[in-house]
What does this fold into?
Amino acid sequence: MASTETGTAAEAAGTTDEATADAPPAPAAKAAPEAGKAAPEAAKPDGAADLAGLEAGLDALDTTVTDRQPWLRALAAKAVPPVIAVVLVLGLWQLAYHFELKDHYLLPSPVDVARSLQDKWLEGTLLDYVWTSVSRGALGFLASVAIGTPLGLLVARVKPVRAAIGPILSGLQSLPSVAWVPAAIIWFGLSDATIYAVVLLGAVPSIANGLVAGVDQISPLYLRAGRTIGARGLTGVRHVLLPAALPGYLAGLKQGWAFSWRSLMAAELIVNAADLGTGLGQLLEQGRELQDMSWVLSAILLILVVGIGIELLIFAPIERRVLRSRGLLVKS
It folds into this structure.
């Protein structure tokens, strides 16, 4: 009897333990699927955040950096290297003068050249020399652009014309401009027409060839798209062809100006007459006739300064703007 009660009590205790043991797992098992469901839901925001970060990174790659440096730092970054180069050149020049690599009358010092420039300035003639050459060069360059641009378009777009004239333009571009001076003197005499003829013959081939190169680099898709929207003839040239060829055309213009300036100096060296006025080339020739090396080096320095100034003040800003508008140059 006692054993029966003991067994019943044990079974009851076992039942109670089983109930106690089985009771907790049910909520835990129920919580596990809920946690499994919650985990993807919690992962979804992380995946979305990763995708958003990836899209932001791709957008950042396409975004142009527009942070600007302080103007003083930017000016120093642009001005310091050229100043250092000029100081080095002047230092080497002064050393050559000091150790008499050439006699002093053949190689004057930088101070002697500066004094010669000062004398011309005090005489009031320095700016006249510079203006005479710059005005001639500008007028000759504009005339070269007016002739070279349509000629380049014709050569680029008409195959028979290209086959006939293309090699001639390349040959004229490689011909030294000074070679035209004797012929121009025979044709026009000692006049401004001779100087402008030499400038045109030196600059027109460069401008035309630059435009031809720019047109050759245009994607056919642009031209096809232009024809699709009705841009044909002069309208297509104005709104499709020239804008698309602008980088190459601008390079041709820069080279055309360089040829114009060099051709002008070559013409002024030889074409020397009292009624023509005195340009930098004629000033250089006068210094040679007087055997005044300070005068000669002063004229060479002025020619160099004008050439560099035109490049930095006119062509460099235009080139940066064109390249930046096409995404080829990023502001920093």
